[in-house]
Amino acid sequence: MTSLENSDRFTFVRHGDAEAWIEAVAAEMAQILNHDIAETGRARMLLSGGSTPAPVYQALAELDVQWDRVEVSLVDERWLSPQDSDSNAWLVRENLLKRAEGAHFDPLVRVGKPLPECVYAANLQAQHNQAPSVAVLGMGNDGHTASLFPGSRDLAKALESTLPYAALDATGCPGANQWPLRITLTPRGLRTCRQRLLLLRGKQKLEVLKQALESNNAQLYPILNAIDIDGPKLRIHWCD
């Protein structure tokens, strides 16, 4: 049986309820950002979309952070306009940026540009900016993280990429829903992040995580690509 609390692969933090989970994660993110601002004058964070992290972003925006010194971008994005309400850019804007006055936002999708050009621009930007202070990750019930979907035709290529971002076609993957074309952070991109947080809610996600750890198959459970990489251990925050 996989032990979560005593793992040498990651740090697992169990919270008593959703309110405590939101408060603790937001506080940890603010602490990370403020540390890097104090050290280098700026901080950068990569955020995921979805309903799970949205309340954390709302809480984070209310904390004492010099937002005009923070750059925000995305872990991944659907091939949608940043103004589309189904895009990750829209979720981050509505839940964080409208409250975190002064923060600079770099979307992954650039309106009017084809997908390869957007990926090229994302990689160029990643290479010229400072390393991300923190990346916030989620995990689907299929074991995907970012837009690294198991069974996708581009998964192996994305996992082996030497660049921070890659395009991925997840056609036929249930977890991608009606948005198969994606831009996603790669394992190489994850390695550049000074800290990685995985935010999980509910018993089902916990079971998927345990299955992934027991399988040791990073193709079948791409979440393992966020766990078994160089750098600080992944911090997993969970509540029921």
Q: Biggest sheet, open or closed, and with what strands and sense?
A: 7 strands, parallel
User: Can you tell me the residue ranges where pLDDT is under 50 for at least 5 consecutive residues?
Assistant: none
Strand percentage, roughly?
15-25%
How would you sum up the global shape?
A: globular
Global mean pLDDT: 96
Count of β-strands: 10
The end-to-end span amounts to 20 Å
The run of helices and strands is EHEHEEHEHEHEEHEHHE
Number of helices: 8
Gyration radius from CA atoms, angstroms:
17 Å
Task: Determine the structural class based on helices, strands and strand pairing.
Answer: alpha/beta
**How are strands sequenced across the largest beta sheet?**
1-10-9-6-2-3-5
What is the helix content? 25-40%
Tell me what the structure shows.
With 240 residues, this protein is of the alpha/beta class. Helix content is 35%, strand content 19%. It has eight helices and ten strands. It has a seven-stranded parallel sheet, with helices on both faces. It has a three-stranded antiparallel sheet with strand order 4-8-7. Helix 2 (54-61) links the parallel strand 2 (43-47) and strand 3 (70-74).
Main features:
seven-stranded parallel β-sheet, 240 residues, 35% helix, 19% strand, alpha/beta, three-stranded antiparallel β-sheet, single chain
Question: Quick summary of this structure?
Answer:
With 240 residues, the protein is an alpha/beta fold.
